[in-house]
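User: quick one, fold this
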Amino acid sequence: MTFRFVQSRRLSDLKETKVYQEGRTEGERSLVLRLLARRVGTLPANVEAQVQALALPQLEALGEALLDFTGLDDLLGWLQGNG
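Assistant:
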């Protein structure tokens, strides 16, 4: 067994752990919230709570969609259709 294979396997195993997935989700959530604040301004508490409740695939989709947002209404529309 080569070192690269063992190293690759360990990384693969790590990515499957709950701790890794939770950390990845929290990182994505933090980034999306910061980007939203810059794009649309301070989020109302109820809207921030909706974003906080999104799963990782939804956060990733929101992270891409927010690049086209011009205001809070765009975010609200996205959340209504995807949240």
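User: anything notable?
Assistant: Helices lie at 3-15, 18-40, 45-52, 56-65, 72-82.
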